[in-house]
Amino acid sequence: MSKQSQSVTTITPRKKLFELNFGETLRYKDLIILFVKNDFKTRYKQMLLGPLWAIIQPLLTTVVFTVVFGNIAGLPTDGAPKFMFYMCGNVLWTYFASCLNGAAGSFSGNAYLFSKVYFPRLVAPLSNALGNMLNSFIQFIIFLGFLVYFVIRGGVAPQYSLLWLALLLVVQSTLLAMGIGLVLASVTIKYRDLKMLISFGVQLWLYATPIAYSSTLVKEKLPSLFQLYMLNPMASICEAMRKIFLGVSTVSVKYLLISAAFSIAFFLLGVVFFNRAEKTFTDKI
Amino acid sequence: MEQDVVLQTENLVKEYRLGQIGTGTLRGDLQSFFARLFKKDDPNISLLADQYYDIEHKTHRALDGVSIQIKRGEAVGLIGTNGAGKSTLLKLISRITLPSEGTLSYRGKVASLLEVGTGFNGELTGRENIYMNGAILGMSRADIDKKMDEIIAFSEIGEYINTPVKRYSSGMFVKLAFAVAAHLDADILLMDEILAVGDVKFQDKSLRRMEEVASEEQKTVIYVSHNMATIRRFCTRCIVLESGKVVFDGDVEQAIEVYTQRKKQSFSTHNDVREAKRRYCPNALVRKVSFEEFDILGADECVIQDKAAFRMRFRFRAKEAIAGTRLKVSFCDATEQPIATAISPTFDISEGENSLEVTADIRALKQGIYTISGALMQVSSFDIFSYYDNVDQMGMIEILPDEDGLLWAARVWGRAELPPLKIGGDSHE
Q1: A185-223: pLDDT as tens digits
Q2: Closest C-alpha to B151, from B120, B186, B127
Q3: Three-state SS across B274-314?
Q4: How many CB atoms lie within 10 A of CB B257?
Q5: Of the ranges B46-60, B67-81, B212-226, which is most confident?
Q6: CB < 8 Å to B114, chain A
Q7: Is residue B3 within 8 angstroms of chain A, CB to CB?
Q8: For chain A, give me the number of helices (H) and strands (E)?
Q9: Of B29, B105, B136, the CB nearest to A10
Q10: Cβ partners under 8 Å of residue B306, min gap 6
Q11: What whole-number distance in Å separates Cα of residue A25 and Cα of residue A129?
Q12: What ipTM score was computed for the predicted complex, to two decimals?
């Protein structure tokens, strides 16, 4: 019989505390690809402007930031062109926030599917992150377009030798966003009122991160709090991105390493929480 | 696990906690926690005393030590009354939830058709949804491509395959879902009444396809149904579950016999229906009236002696007096399908205890076992039914074969006999 090599699956009540089950998740790579593709397709179906929304949203935010924080409030941008300064922060933050929100909604958004069929549950937040990556990539291309213009005109000085670091920083912010999102996803199964906190919290976090202003401003105005401020893992990621693409602002390796440690720790914690929650999720909704 | 065994469970237990776990909000739980810490009265106890703290530690075993072995190519029927644990067992096998104790192992892939069209996305076309469903099963795109034409042909969807499924009729939707499920590359197929989809022609086609899957493709099928006719036709083995335990495992005919006998034993001529399962009614009037007891009169162990005058007594309690209500009594067969219904003229209900004795003429019903469902209702002048209470299984009766007349072939002729035909054409007198 040809089918005798079929693998045997054994299910027991107790699963290990930490179980990434990467092999199994990988076997479902076709499902992940389909989820990403379908999500992209359905997100912009029956819409007037379609995928253009992916571009309009950060562009408009950047324009608003430039006018409000740059021109009206007159905040310094470390010498970089205002528009580029805010756009760099916005593209990064949009990606981070949508990854976090997406991961936090892993259970509530897929409750119906999860209660009907089995597939490795981690597929849901993973494909969500990939979808957001695709979206942000489009925004990044636009950003690159502007960057080329400003490089020719002068005013920005990208650090070409550090471009590889940008990739690492994207991975790092993904891990951080997914980690925190997965913890929230698991906790909100039981405490639904925490959902209120998520969108509100992400908004507050935006103000605790140098997106709309520069971290040198914090150093000048609140020197006693600066060290604490830089413990925010997103702060050093954002400043490092600006360093790489615009050549402005300074970030110490120390804070970058702390941020990396935080991201990895949160991701592992998120997976532990998620594993615990997925076992009993269908019994609790 | 032996080579030809595809599914094996050992002492499988699934336990559910009853009642609410915690107060459900972080604020409530913190409140209770601090109250306990400072030895004050918990504000949530008085509020939720009955539903929350008292029941909190009680558990219910939906499955209580199930050990079964299923071999390759078997078509196994799973029968039992509501709440016997059939769906829970399917949920465990399909890995939607984990067992509380015991182990479960299987060989290959499991596809569950617990609800047809699971994971269908309305915005996507039929073809895209086929890929999606296959991917959920863990199949690769190439594997799905190989089956694509076969699936489309079976589903009878034709040219609409490239239309978003949200524009499908419900019949088309279900046909496509079944076609996908029946052709995908799973080694074990779990089905929950799925064969009752589409029109009669498609149902027959589905059933034949399932027979093919089990006998020719050597796949294993586990089928849950209340319909004994499909179980008989389709299954090679049958397991009877009761209160989470396996009470019979083996020959199909014997299993159905065990099931029917067991079901009969759980009823008597006197039934307390205070805790019985209520049917959900869309426009139910808040439980002003509820059935408490149901008695079968003039019968010996639920075997009906006089079909022309079958007497029953209903006792119910009303919170207020209500005028113009009706009593509805339905007789259902073993598959819980209603066969016949009798409705009373209107009567008035007084506040408090009520007792109502009724007589039904059930000469039309042929031999067999029937469950009785009862409802108190009001019919408005717009023909809208409003139910006060509706109990699915109040009791059970057995009707013996008639002593005179023809031997009744119930499986072919149905369960009810109309008055004899009159010979002659012109009956317009």
Answers
A1: 988 887 777 888 888 899 999 999 999 898 888 888 888
A2: B127
A3: CCCCECCCCCCCCCCEEEEEEEEECCECCECCCCCCEEEEE
A4: 13
A5: B67-81
A6: 116
A7: yes
A8: 13, 1
A9: B105
A10: B298
A11: 15
A12: 0.77
Domains for chain B: give ranges and CATH numbers: 63-264 (3.40.50.300), 270-413 (2.70.50.60)
| Structural tokens at position A46 | 């029956």
Are the CB atoms for A156 and A147 separated by under 8 Å?
A: yes
Please answer whether residues B312 and B357 qualify as being in contact, where contact means their C-beta atoms are separated by less than 8 angstroms: yes
* CA distance to A19, A170, A231, per residue, from A99 (Å): 22, 11, 21
Choose, out of B26, B115, B220, the residue to mutate when testing the contact with A (most A CBs < 10 Å).
B26
- Say whether A11 and B103 touch across the interface (CB within 8 A): yes
Q: Which residues contact A66 (CB under 8 A, 6 or more apart)?
A: A82, A83, A86
pTM above 0.80? no
Would you call A117 and B96 a contact, using CB atoms and an 8 Å cutoff?
Answer: yes
Q: State the residue for tokens 């119930």.
A: B410
* pLDDT tens readout for residues A135-162: 899 899 999 999 999 999 888 889 888 8
Provide φ and ψ at B407, rounded to 5°.
-70, 130
pLDDT band at B347 (very low <50, low <70, confident <90, very high): very high
Measured CB to CB, residues of chain A less than 8 Å from chain B are 3-4, 6-13, 15, 27-28, 30-31, 34, 38, 41-42, 45, 113-119, 190-194, 279-280, 282-284
CA closest to A282 among chain B residues: B97
- Any residues with CB less than 8 A from the CB of B247 and at least 6 apart, and which? B240, B241, B258, B262
pLDDT tens digits, B10-27: 999 988 876 555 556 677
H/E element, A247: none
Question: Which of B333, B341, B328 minimizes the C-alpha distance to B386?
Answer: B328
DSSP line for B123-145: TSBHHHHHHHHHHHTT--HHHHH
